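Records of this kind hold a single protein each, on a pair of labelled lines. Below, a sample record shows both lines together.
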Amino acid sequence: MDEHIEKTRDLLEQTVSPTFCLAKFHHTTIYLQTGETHSCYHPSPHKIPLEELEASASALHNTKHKKQERKEMLEGKKPKGCQYCWNVESMGEEYTSDRHERNASIYRPERVEEIQKYGSDLDINPEYIEISFGNECNFKCGYCHPKASSTYWKEIEKFGPYDMVENHRLDIDWIKIFKKEEENPYVKAWWEWWPEVRKTLSILRITGGEPLLQQSTWKLLDNLSKYPLPDLEINVNSNLGVKPILVDRLCKYVKDFEENDKIKRFKLFTSLDTWGPKAEYIRFGLDLDVWEKNFHHYLNTTNANITFMMTFNILAVSSFKTILQKILEWRQMYPDVTNGASQLHRVRFDTPYLKEPLQYDMNILPKNQFMHYMNDTLAFMKDNVVKGDPTKFSDLEYWKFKRVVDYMNQTNYSKERLLEGRSDFYNWFTELDRRRGTNFDETFPEYREFKDECRLISEARKAKSTS
């Protein structure tokens, strides 16, 4: 555990609560297309009641639901939505949970003092906001959702719901979504809140859907160009699979921000889980030729960094080393432009672990068949860790992935959960291939034996349910 993280953990446990998380107060992700929010990716998003919004636009973040979870944390209780962090922490003190990392990254004495003074009912203007203006997107990644992808939505309109699985049953009949930003009361509330919340923000992250396809993204960038915030960091999540003209438009804003000090920093985040045909299968809609053109144009046109959010899922297990090899290749091409410190790579990455839907969870794989891929990839990383070298991996990157490897190695699901997940695996990817004209067996031949096992499980469960 990093020394700063450890010190912050111990301080907050002693002065506030052993389950306290500053992210529940000062971080928020808001999905305006559905009117939902949460404070990190582990708890499921919950609805923002319109009646709460009518009383205050800050209810985009400060919902009664979230205030109850804050109350539980201040009392030393563990909100059930935060189970992922509780699971990681239960593995031992040497394991760093996301709660520990976020507490350390946003800790300020005055923030904690304010919370202790006013308690869980305080309406906070957060220091970090992630905002989604709509679900318009040109990709339909398998583990995504029509809430976040308009092309996924259209696929379900055409073929009907994904109702052949017990997990991640995708339907659109029950979802209320605002397809037009100009007709969305949550977007309206955002622009009402913006003049106030912009005063306290440290980081604003724009996500999607695909942000470069949404007009509110360009409206916000234009607002910042006209009315600068020199202390604000702007992050944008883009799949980088859009038309190059849109990436060039983004580059012009970034260059303006950089050259005229209109914001503190700009960061671009993109997502790949592996490389080659496997990557295009997982992130359906991805054309790696277009993606690479946009990737290189961005790095050659601006001085900004780019970070990969590698969603570590079941299909990345066998080929994750291929994307790590590309990372090293790109780091040779785009070395650090500042002082060469290992934490300042221009091309960066993180390895968050996907926990749902179950058919994408690496822990339903047989360890005797697949653990060797994980160990081999970890050894590759270890062999390429060089402190202070911007063309190699950092210690932190290695240890973050080791956490994923250890989590897979130590996690043992019940027999029923394994049967459920493996049945869903077969049913899901069989249907995915039918709808999209893809071929799982040709793309992932190393999974063929596992998929055959899953087919037998699926057939047995169906026979049992009809007998």
Residues 415-436 form the longest helix (22 residues). The chain has a mean pLDDT of 94.
